[in-house]
Specification:
The complex is a heterodimer of chains A (257) and B (365).
Chain A: H1 8-11, E1 19-28, E2 31-41, E3 46-50, H2 57-64, E4 72-77, E5 80-81, H3 86-95, E6 96-99, H4 111-121, H5 127-140, H6 156-168, E7 174-178, H7 186-201, E8 205-209, H8 213-219, E9 222-227, E10 230-235, H9 237-242, H10 247-256
Parallel strand pairs in A: 3-8, 3-9, 6-7, 7-8
Antiparallel strand pairs in A: 1-2, 1-4, 4-5, 9-10
Helix pairs in contact in A: 4-5, 4-6, 5-6, 6-7
Chain B: H1 18-26, H2 31-57, H3 77-81, H4 83-88, H5 96-113, H6 121-141, H7 157-183, H8 188-203, H9 206-220, H10 229-254, H11 258-266, H12 271-286, H13 288-301, E1 311-312, H14 313-322, H15 330-359
Helix pairs in contact in B: 5-6, 7-8, 7-10, 7-13, 7-14, 8-10, 9-10, 10-12, 10-13, 11-12, 13-15, 14-15
Classes of the chains: A alpha/beta (257), B mainly alpha (365).
């Protein structure tokens, strides 16, 4: 797909952004976790969010599908503004797939059942069609032979690929990744990153919270650096890594590289 | 010297394995343990020999009346002579077939529901939960299709025990699940109502509940409205046990990691769908031992209905040996009742272990 060219998102953003966050704040009780977040994500754009732990990266992307509630500001996903209306939340969740650090597969269901559950019960798809789609995505993440097994019988890397396939079965227009490789053994990180790179090449809109800087360099259109609940720096990957502007960014990069 | 050939596998010394090895290691490893083993064997001998002789060797099995009991051991004639009383209570003898039919259908349903390949198993399950109780009720009480009407006061014996505990088990689990979900709810009123309900019913003894239902409730009801005694006892038992069940289920809900709720939400599943498809199947599986424990306690708790004048198995047995023809055979009666209760409770326990094994999907949390 030509659309997935890295330069595409910068120039030709003709239609409305897929995600728009304007002046968003969030508090946990008295604690101000997110401060004045502004972010616009175009269709097909791939954004990597990094920053020290406790900087609010995960909280920010969890606000996008309302796993966390924001108290001030606006979040507009694919033209739908997030508020307390449950119908809107459900519509947005159908459009937004999420992959978690700890996979969160359903241990009492087989791999294929994990994939088919939401298409059947949320999209009201006939079982046979949902299973065909489930197998298709399991093939895309290269583990169709595990379809009948339970998640507990799979390795961490395989489980995370199943989790990606499970989200894709809902044919989302946006995918959120919350530290997808942080809980994996080193030799399994690669297989998950490869799956994510393939997904990026197919033109999926992605926001990825990760510390995998190699992934950020090859895949991202933009890298966002967060600290203490704020977006400190936002740049294309080349400038971000070669010429970081803020001291805090420099410090962070020097620590992890 | 270096031995280059691989050495053959030799059998271990005879004294370390096999029966003799086991005896040595477990029963006679040291003088003190040997002494304790011998002492324990002597105590077992003291208990077992008279028991076996009372139950089997010196007992009387055939006959019609107490005159047949001459051997000095247990008089099982008492049980066989009053067997129908213990099974059916005061249900009219000509109508026993109706009770038998109810339990035969139940047994058939249970067997069918365990055949995995059976088509339309879901419908059969729905019938077992909705259609079957209605049929069972009308078979028991009669009054339609020319069946003789049998008042609930004549129901009794093991069949009454099974009716009470069956209703209690089938109704308390879903009510308990709803209460547990209510107690975990974000909605303050739902949460408060659930907590008050659970804590109230857990805080009073079942005997009080039964007394209240049979003695106090009629005082509050308007004159002339009669409200079946058995029904009142059933409602009391169900409400009481569902409060316990709610806490067992809540324990299971608390053990489900937050990630499961989040994954279900992120996929767009609604509250009820994520509960029924993701959370409850895992939570209930985790607390099968607790649920079955509550069922077993419920089964035995039904004996308390004797204080409001219902004739369950234990009460009919007591009525049996208080009969002047059979005075003095209380021990036989209690042993028989205990055996029946034990068979049912032990079966439930074994079934639950079997179920746990079957539902295990090899996941470690």
């Amino acid at each position: 797909m030509t659309k997935s060219d890295k330069t595409d998102a910068d120039g030709s953003v003709s239609d409305r952004p897929m995600i728009e966050i304007k002046g968003m704040h969030k508090w946990y009780g008295e604690f101000h976790v997110l401060k004045d977040i502004n972010l616009s994500v175009a269709k097909g754009e791939r954004i990597v969010v990094c920053g020290p732990s406790g900087s609010g990266k995960s909280t920010m992307i969890r606000c996008i599908n309302r796993l966390e509630e924001h108290q001030k500001g606006k979040i507009i996903v694919d033209g739908i503004e997030l508020n307390d209306d449950l119908k809107r939340i459900d519509r947005i969740r159908r459009e937004v797939g999420m992959v978690f650090q700890h996979f969160n597969l359903f241990p009492h269901l087989t791999v294929l059942e994990n994939c088919c559950l939401a298409p059947i019960w949320v999209r009201k798809m006939p079982r046979r069609k949902a299973e065909a789609i489930g197998m298709e995505y399991l093939e895309r993440v290269k583990i169709p032979e595990q379809a009948k097994k339970y998640p507990g019988q799979l390795s961490g890397g395989q489980q995370q690929r199943v989790a990606i396939a499970r989200s894709l079965c809902m044919s989302p227009s946006i995918m959120l990744f919350d530290e997808p490789t942080s809980a994996l053994d080193p030799e399994m990180i690669k297989e998950v990153l490869e799956t994510m790179i393939e997904l990026a090449e197919s033109g999926m809109t992605m926001i990825v919270v990760t510390h995998e800087m190699g992934f950020a360099k090859t895949v991202a259109n933009r890298v966002i650096f967060m600290d203490e609940g704020q977006i400190i720096e936002e740049n294309d990957p080349e400038s971000f890594f070669s010429a970081p502007e803020h001291d805090r960014t420099k410090l962070f990069l020097s620590q992890i590289m | 010297m270096i031995n280059n050939d691989s050495l053959p596998d030799l059998p271990p010394p005879r004294t370390s394995v096999g029966f003799i090895g086991w005896l040595r290691n477990n029963l006679f490893p040291s003088p003190l343990n040997t002494l304790l083993t011998l002492l324990a064997l002597y105590i077992i001998y003291l208990v077992v020999v008279p028991t076996v002789s009372w139950v089997f060797l010196n007992s009387d099995w055939v006959g019609e009346s107490r005159d047949a009991c001459t051997s000095g051991g247990a008089c099982w004639v008492f049980i066989s002579a009053r067997f129908n009383l213990f099974m059916y209570g005061f249900y009219p003898e000509s109508e026993y077939w109706r009770v038998n039919l109810v339990f035969a259908i139940l047994a058939l349903l249970l067997v069918l529901l365990h055949i995995k390949q059976l088509p339309r198993r879901g419908w059969l399950g729905a019938f077992a939960l909705i259609g079957y109780p209605i049929i069972a009720f009308y078979l028991f009480s009669g009054g339609i299709f020319g069946l003789e009407k049998v008042e609930t006061s004549r129901w009794g014996g093991l069949s009454l025990t099974l009716v009470l505990s069956g209703v209690g088990i089938v109704a308390s689990l879903p009510i308990g699940v709803i209460l547990a979900l209510g107690r975990n709810s974000q909605m303050p009123i739902v949460k408060a109502v659930s907590i008050v309900f659970i804590e109230f019913w857990r805080g009073v003894p079942l005997i009080t509940v039964l007394f209240m239902s049979s003695v106090m409730l009629p005082l509050f009801l308007p004159e002339g409205t009669s409200f079946d005694k058995l029904l009142r006892a059933m409602i009391g038992i169900v409400l009481f046990e569902s409060a316990y069940m709610a806490e067992v289920v809540r324990g299971g809900l608390a053990a489900i990691p937050r990630g499961q709720y989040e994954a279900a939400k992120a996929l767009g599943l609604s509250y009820w769908k994520s509960m029924s498809l993701i959370i409850l199947p895992q939570a209930l599986k985790l607390v099968i031992p607790g649920i079955v424990n509550t069922f077993i306690a419920l089964f035995k708790d039904t004996t308390l209905v004797l204080i409001i004048g219902l004739f369950d198995l234990l009460t009919t047995v007591e009525a049996g040996f208080k009969d002047s023809h059979w005075l003095g055979y209380a021990l036989e009666g209690y042993v028989f009742a205990a055996l029946v209760y034990w068979i049912f409770c032990f079966s439930m326990s074994r079934y639950s272990q079997n179920l746990e094994r079957k539902l295990h999907t090899g996941h470690a949390r």
